[in-house]
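Sample intake — KIF-binding protein
Collected from: Cynoglossus semilaevis
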Amino acid sequence: MASVNSDEWRAICDKFTNAQNLTDIESKNDPQNEPFRSKYKARELLREIYSSLKCFDAPEGDEDSVDQQPPEEPVDGQREEGHGQSICGDSAAGLRAARLGAVDYYLGVNHVDTEELSAGQEHLMNCMKLLEKCSVTSDNVSLYIHVKNQLGILWASRDETETAQGFLETAESIYQRYMKEDGSPPTDMTEYFTTEENQLTHQERTKRFELAYTHTMYYLAQVYKNLGQNERAATYCHSTLQRQLQLNQFSPMEWALNAATLSQYYITKGHFMLGRHCLAAASVISGLAGDVPSEAAAQESEIESERREKLRQQRAEIARCWIKYCLNLLQDAKKQLEDNIGELDSDRQDELKRTRRQEEEEEEKERKSTLLFGSEDTFDSIATLEEKVQCLFPLDFNEARAVFLVGQNYVTQAKEYFVMDGYVTDHIEILQDHSALFRSLAFFEEDLERRCKMHKRRIDMLEPICTDLNAQFYLMIRRQLMFELAESYSEMMDLKLTLANRQADTQSLDNHTIKKFNSLCSASAKYFQMFLDSLCSPDGKFPERLEEEVLRPALVAHFRVGRLHSRLIGSPPSVQLTDLGKSLENYKFVVEYCAAHPEAAAVVEAELELSKEMVGLLPLKINRLKARMVTNN
């Protein structure tokens, strides 16, 4: 057997180095008409290495294997079965198995990269079969994990998620077992084909091994997400992000976007401390990508132009995640504090204020038990940013306003990139979030005049957009805006009437107040009716059966139009009669639709009950009005 310091061995090592260089570097410059040219060359070198290994260190008594050549495609995955039983009889045989397995691994990855998945799978399975005949040692544990990772990726790409899960969970258990039983820095796969003077340091071995396991966790996070195991997926994603920071193996903007995305899961689950931590880390780490190039620099260089565009977009995306954080925090606080008519429950507010200290202590405990992001260089910056916005529910207007202002600041940042000219949908979604921030803040405002002004701000930002949008291309968005505008006008109407009634009864309202009330009432009814009209066919016919996504909004709109037409003040009797007729017509629609489609009743229980009541009462009111009109005439 030739020595590992022989010229023959050095030739093998040189071929391996060339194959790696072709794969990792030269392939990036391959022409479009030959996209895999370098990888095909690397494949030939790997096949030559395989043949040389058979000749180089074949065990005594296994001379037959010397003449074997690696087939163009593996045959039935059985290449090593003939001598597998004794392949790991000693450490030298184990190392030989690892080297042969490593070549199969690299050939497998090569075939997958060149879109030859079946051949890639055969090579990877051959590698795995070789290793399964050996115990897990420092010589081969890294290869074990890499091949399991690659098979997991391969099966995931075929949407065979559970098969992928099996390979990746095995990789995880191999890592955990090795770290428990040994834990020493294991041999890296590249070291199978290096001379003694080029072996890696213990530190570099450890880093590469931990990075392989980090990839396992990353792929498992994707698998669990695809299986609907969202909590488990979030845990693995969180750990992956922290390991990437520890190993200093990450792209700042990619890492930041992943952290910001993870925050959205935590927020929807009510874990605001974790959501805030992810967002603060995302903002800090994104700063490591550098400053956004100026417009002048972007105009002079195509590379700087692309970099400017990418950085601006990615930071705007993180800003949007911050908006969602602030909005969800305010909305969830509102749910905790509102009474059965949607107003602030002062008793509940006092109760939560009394338990605030306990909440703060629980938050501190959670923080201490949580895997926090950061290093010595970034941890303080992350903590400083976290302090700028609370993660406990705001309990009064001042606390809510502080959260609102943070959200509004990120609205401004996001809109700088997602402008109306070019990003219509994104821009409108940001405006809708801004409107929702105002609506949530208004809940905490005790001054009804100021609350009314907040709803007016919502109308001012959404109404021009709704008017200008092309109904053909942005129908769904226009429907959303119509409904929100109708509700905003309705809320303003109720507030104005409440303010007026604090000073006098309805019969004594001055003309200005009545005119304002009726104007708001009519505007609300107009937008609800516009929403309903948008559901009609081109010939103006309303659908006999409503689609599930518009079922509740449509029935609620009919109910609200009915309510609004019955609330107009001070109209002449003839106009009142017309309005009451429209009101009855809309209430009847809700009742008759639910009778024809019983499944709809569960969607609008409260509205249906009131509609039935009004269908019984309104005809009496209409008849009395008609009788009075006849008498007066």
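Post-analysis note: Residues 535-633 form one domain.
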